[in-house]
Write a structure and sequence with these properties.
It is built from two helices and no strands. The protein is mainly alpha-helical and 87 residues long. It is extended, with a radius of gyration of 16 Å.
């Protein structure tokens, strides 16, 4: 089954989602984004999203290589809520 799960939604360039960060990671990322946006424009970091998006993409690409023969995982339109049950 290669069809996306969940209900179809209209595709947009950016989507706002709520996720939880470790406080220290978030504080460091916010400090880096603020500093770079103000003092190092050549870094190309204007917001927290400019740090988070490339980092997540790099890690997902690594996971695809390791666990899915380098192919994207099957699309999921809606993730189950809560923590997964222990197996």
């Amino acid at each position: 089954m290669d069809e996306p799960t969940g209900q179809s939604t209209q595709s947009r360039r950016r989507v706002q989602r709520t996720i939880n960060f470790d406080r220290s990671v978030l504080e460091r990322a916010r400090a880096a984004a603020t500093y770079l946006a103000s003092y190092e424009p050549q870094a190309g970091v204007r917001s927290l999203a400019d740090i988070v998006n490339p980092a997540v993409l790099a890690y997902v690409t690594e996971l695809e290589e390791l666990y899915n023969s380098g192919e994207p995982f099957r699309p999921v339109l809606r993730m189950p809520s809560g923590r997964p049950a222990n197996r």
